[in-house]
Design a protein that fits this description.
The chain is of the alpha/beta class. It has one domain: Alpha-Beta Barrel (TIM Barrel). The chain contains 12 helices and 10 strands. The chain has an 8-stranded parallel beta barrel with strand order 1-2-3-6-7-8-9-10, surrounded by 7 helices. Strands 4-5 form a two-stranded antiparallel ribbon. Helix 7 (146-165) links the parallel strand 6 (129-136) and strand 7. Helix 10 (261-277) packs parallel to helix 12 (307-324). The longest helix is centred in the middle third of the chain and has 21 residues, at 184-204. The radius of gyration is 19 Å and the shape is globular. The chain starts with a helix and ends with a helix. It binds 2-O-methyl-1,6-di-O-phosphono-D-mannitol.
Length: 327
């Protein structure tokens, strides 16, 4: 698992999140007027994976379970193709969210049943890491409730333990959602509560921290408010890391959470800069889906045969993400 962490956090490289569930990718395709059948989904993803020199900026790819064993057109399995091209294959092992019975509003993440067997199987299929995402809505004085924080953080810890037992590096993704009109300080309060509970449980359950990756949102205001300046985001985000994230974890990667590509790159650059200024030594990188895929997906939706153009746009956005990491 240490080798996997080292490969993922190579200088200037990050993770491509291509693990949208069928429901999520269908939503994205629908907006662009493309039919979300399996053929279109795999053809689109294969174009991304086969981008020339993708490994210059991408060290690992999170796959949806169906993609892991899929054949690239006339060639080999996706996991083998990535490996041959010096990229690590990972897989999303959660089974998406469902309403939490305590209030029927908040969401918990399913997928613990049979997880060990699935992880063992994914390892055999060539995966080297896994990912589990849960979500926390923010509404001042209302959400997230203590009950959902307890449930989601406990399940993240159970997942991380099982993943490590199968030799797979877990990426724990407690996503603090942007939806709403909450202030950046309200978001920060939620980060404090969630991270405090999460890392306390990880330590008491003796999850190996150096073989674990945290995937997190930036500390930002709700999406209905105007955008935060990059310096404030960096200051608040690094403050949370310093206070709640043990330095010995394998690394931290950011999700983009519906921020625009340029915002995702600028927040990443300012946060990495701030981390360097204060000698925060835990490796930091990106694990973006929308921030590096959205422009390419629009081009693809307009002309599904113009692979070269899609790959050019996609490569350019991975390059921008890489540049944001500084060198
Ligand atoms: C790509 O979407 C991932 C899976 O989400 P669903 O289960 O809802 O389909 C998601 O975990 C993703 O990896 C992260 O949120 C990062 O994606 P963004 O678009 O936020 O960078």
């Amino acid at each position: 698992m240490n080798k996997t962490i080292q490969k993922i956090f190579q200088t200037g490289k990050g993770i491509l999140a291509a693990d949208e569930s069928t429901k999520t990718i269908s939503k994205r395709f629908k907006v662009l007027g493309v039919e979300a059948n399996q053929k279109n989904i795999s053809e689109y993803r294969n174009i991304l994976f086969e981008t020339n020199n993708l490994n210059k900026h991408i060290s690992g790819v999170i796959l949806y379970k169906d993609t892991l064993d899929q054949q690239l057109v006339d060639t080999k399995k996706v996991a083998d193709f990535l490996k041959e091209n010096n990229m690590v294959a990972g897989v999303k092992v959660d089974e998406s969210t469902e309403k939490f019975s305590k209030n029927n509003i908040e969401l918990y993440t399913k997928g613990l049943d049979g997880l060990k067997e699935r992880c063992d199987c994914y390892y055999e299929m060539g995966a080297q890491f896994t990912k589990w995402r849960n979500v926390f809505s923010v509404e001042e004085g209302v959400f997230p409730t203590d009950e959902i924080i307890d449930k989601n953080t406990s399940d993240l810890v159970k997942y991380a333990k099982i993943s490590q037992e199968s030799g797979l590096v877990p990426i724990i993704e407690p996503e603090i959602l942007r939806d709403g009109n909450h202030s950046i300080s309200e978001t920060k309060k939620v980060f404090c509560k969630v991270f405090k509970a999460l890392f306390k449980k990880l330590e008491s359950e003796q999850v190996q921290l150096d073989s674990l990756i945290l995937k997190t949102s930036f500390v930002v205001s709700g999406s209905e408010l105007i955008y935060d300046d990059a310096e404030s985001v960096a200051n608040e985000t690094i403050d949370i890391f310093e206070n709640f994230v043990p330095k010995e974890i394998g690394g931290i990667v950011f999700l983009s959470g519906g921020l625009s590509p340029s915002q995702s790159f600028s927040y990443l650059a300012s946060t990495v800069k701030k981390a360097k200024e204060i000698d925060f030594t835990t490796p930091i990188s990106f694990s973006y889906s929308r921030a590096i895929q959205s422009n390419a997906m629009v081009v693809w939706s307009k002309n599904q045969t113009n692979e070269a153009k899609v790959q050019e746009i996609f490569f350019a956005d991975t390059e921008k993400a890489s540049k944001a990491l500084g060198q």
